[in-house]
Write a structure and sequence with these properties.
This protein is an alpha+beta fold. 39% of the residues lie in helices and 19% in strands.
């Protein structure tokens, strides 16, 4: 309990920092003590589950997802993912991309599980897949190398960026392209990463967004753009983008990772 309270205190201190979001709503709602406590409890339970997986299989890297927004109307369960890896000291860290709310800029962050699950989550649920044993060492080497870990990052952020364009890059897209760089040593650019993903059969999610929805989103949100999408798809209301659900499905289908595992914190916790 003392460790949990100390972590909660640390999280409260973080609230004075500028908001960095991905897969969460950017509403200006202050965090309350209950939300912070539930977020930290979810982080603790996730750490225990990942430690158990490490003891069982030796896995040091997982793809970790959270449910920060309600995307049910699009048939999606999760909103954001990152790469979680077990440090030499023991705790799990998460390398992921976040967007500064209200801006078109994204940055990479290394955070603890508590920070990853902090904020007003739509659902206090964690989900993860375990990359195949052949990918564990290459992924761990890349994620713990500061230069390689940021090599494919693009600063210009677009929440619905087109998967086969390099004009923008959203959070899940960065994570997926980074997988390509770890799995294939010859991949050193985003163009090469996307070509590898196409070759391996990755299929993005197609969102059905009408013209008025697109116009409203573009006018009111600096972090949403559609000008990187092919005209024939954009004007037929088909917006393709990288989602957690599509990444999980592809990794399991291709044999590159396990089927998703999940843990949801009970409402009465």
């Amino acid at each position: 309990m003392k460790k949990l309270l100390a972590a909660v205190t640390t999280c409260l201190a973080l609230l004075i920092a500028p908001a960095a979001q991905a897969g969460r709503s950017c509403e200006a709602k202050p965090l309350n003590a209950q939300g912070i406590e539930r977020g930290m409890a979810l982080a603790q339970r996730t750490a225990e589950a990942l430690d158990a997986e490490h003891q069982r299989s030796g896995a040091r890297v997982v793809v970790l997802a959270r449910a920060g927004q309600d995307l049910g109307k699009y048939g999606l369960r999760y909103s954001h993912l990152g790469w979680a890896y077990k440090t030499a000291e023991g705790p799990w860290r998460v390398l992921h991309k976040l967007n500064q709310c209200g801006s078109s800029v994204g940055s990479l962050y290394r955070q603890g599980l508590g920070e990853f699950f902090l904020d007003d989550l739509w659902r206090h649920e964690a989900a993860w897949v375990v990359p195949a044993p052949s990918l564990q060492a290459p992924l761990y080497a890349l994620l713990t190398d500061r230069a390689r870990g940021i090599a494919l990052h693009t600063r210009d952020y677009n929440m619905v960026s087109y998967p086969w364009s390099t004009r923008y890059q959203q959070s899940n897209q960065w994570a997926l392209e980074t997988l390509a760089a770890a799995a294939e040593p010859g991949v050193t650019t985003r163009e090469q990463a996307q070509a590898w993903l196409r070759f391996k059969g990755y299929q993005p999610t197609t969102l059905r967004l009408g013209a008025m929805t697109r116009l409203g989103a573009r006018v009111s949100s600096a972090h949403i753009a559609f000008d990187d999408h092919p005209n024939e798809k954009r004007f037929s209301d088909r917006i393709e983008t990288v989602t957690v659900d599509s990444v999980f499905e592809w990794l399991a289908r291709s044999g590159m990772a396990s089927t998703p595992q999940r843990f949801e914190l009970p409402r009465a916790y």
